[in-house]
Design goal:
The structure holds two protein chains of two kinds.
Chain A: H1 2-47, E1 50-51, E2 60-61, H2 65-72, H3 74-107, H4 112-119, H5 127-137, H6 144-153, H7 163-191, H8 195-203, H9 208-237, H10 240-245, H11 257-267, H12 271-298
Helix pairs in contact in A: 1-12, 2-12, 3-7, 3-9, 5-7, 7-9, 9-12, 11-12
Chain B: H1 2-6, H2 9-43, H3 47-50, H4 64-71, H5 75-106, H6 112-124, H7 127-140, H8 147-171, H9 176-183, H10 188-199, H11 201-216, H12 220-225, H13 233-239, E1 241-242, E2 245-246, H14 248-268, H15 273-277
Classes of the chains: A mainly alpha, B mainly alpha.
Chain lengths: ~300, ~280
Amino acid sequence: MNKARELRAHRRGILHDEKLTERLMITPAIIALAVISIFPLLYMLYISMFDYSMSVNNPTFVGFQNWARVLKSKTFWACWKRTGYIAGIGISVQMVLGIAVALLIYRLPKGQNVILTLFMLPVFVAPIVAGLLGRFLLNSTYGFYSWILSTFFGYSEELFANPTGAVIGIVAIDVWEWTPLVTMIVLAGLQSMDLEVLEAASIDGASYLAKLRYVIFPLASRTILVALLIRSMDILRYVDTITIITEGGPADATRTSGYYLMQTAFRFQNFGQAAVMGIIMIAVISVLGKLFIRLMGRGVM
Amino acid sequence: MSKGRKKGAGSTKKLVLNIVLYIIAVFLVLWSVLPILWMAISSLKVSTNMFTLPPQFIFRPELGTYKYMFTQAGFGKFLANSLIASISSTLVALFIGSLGGYALCRGRFKRQKDISFWIISTRMAPIPAVILPLYMIFSRLRMVGTMPGLVFAYTTFNLPFALWMMMAFFADVSPALEEAARVDGTSKFGAFLRIALPAASPGLAATGVLCMMFAWNDYVFASALSGASTQTIPIAASLLVTQTGIAWGQAMATGTIIVMPMLLGGLLMRKYLVKGFSMGAVK
């Protein structure tokens, strides 16, 4: 009797010790997360209530005026619209191309790994270097790719000098850098597929398209969604290439909401309105994050 | 391949299809690799043949640009800054991240899902929206342009990433061994330190390499938060772009220096890349 009670108490002690250790181990992370995310967010809310245009060190309280100005500003909505279609085009191309390449590599009888490894090298390239390279290769007088375009396709204009060309150029660089990410994730999904289902479909004489539609896509749909969400969150984050190539131009063609925020804050010193834009951006990306968490909870991890 | 002929029309068709697939694959590889190769080759050319088109593939490689950058343009300083900033933030992230990641993975916390969402949204927060409040806070504390400021800024994305990844990597380690050690009287923390952490060490290394890469490749944070004495290599690269033109030789050499170590690091941990780039959602 006594022994059992002792044992129980001992076990309770261990559990208690365990809980305490876990608490202690997670505390630095929680504090650090609060310092790097909650505090800046609250501070940004604070900034959004002030006008810094007179003096950066001595801002005046203006309440929700910045909010009203930003939400009524045509430029602000124009930037979001632009962000929407640049991101929309970029992500559509990356998803379609990325999935196609993944399917292609998956069909190769040999060398899948070598091809994928070489194909994915651009994901390691710093976005600013990708931007510089794009600018170099697409320069109309000495760019190698421009030379190919003009010799074989008769296009000899300066790509980044006209609005449509600039958007195409920026999207192309993003596609070059991040399509491999989609391929990598989707291919991993394909490779972990249950082969028996696929073989059964082959024996049944299903055509490749039918297999794609009824077997491969349903099985790979989760990884495809993961790739889609990660790319969507990422494409809204980066402003490097735009900063180094077009600076939002020509004629605002590449002024995305992220770049506009940087401009409003660091070129026009209008920190109050920039803060409003920042909070709105965070809200948009949070929705995507929430979807991602739900997706993770549903599937294999 | 000779097997294909024996088996008749179906196999020939398959052989042709495979050849077509490999040809496309070669083009895809070229599309990805050529710009990087082009950059490295251009950095070894002298400016007189750098802009020649059609391109010259046979030329005498010159290291003049690199020599100039390190001896006259003070490139060593940029390199040192980049290394200090990215290594420091990586170490901080790994330390806090492995402790917290383990606790989150093994422990039972009431609001696990909320914490997960918190970590992911901190990692994915839009960069411009993170920079703004940091810049305002740092200017109050006189930390703009300082190394601790830059390290802190990099930790804002590396810490949530490390936490998240270590949580996923610890989930792959079977708790059985730790439990056995616990029965033998090892403390919970001892079990973490001596059993779980060594078992997850490849994951720790992979997370470290990716943290390094994110910080090393950053341009936007450094553009707002670094100062004259803390400029990193990506900033040095951007400074080569001026109103009057771009010093392409140096730009290509700088790009090569930024990219090569990351290619190497990425290839070394090739096995864990999918997990890292999909935020642990795909193995």
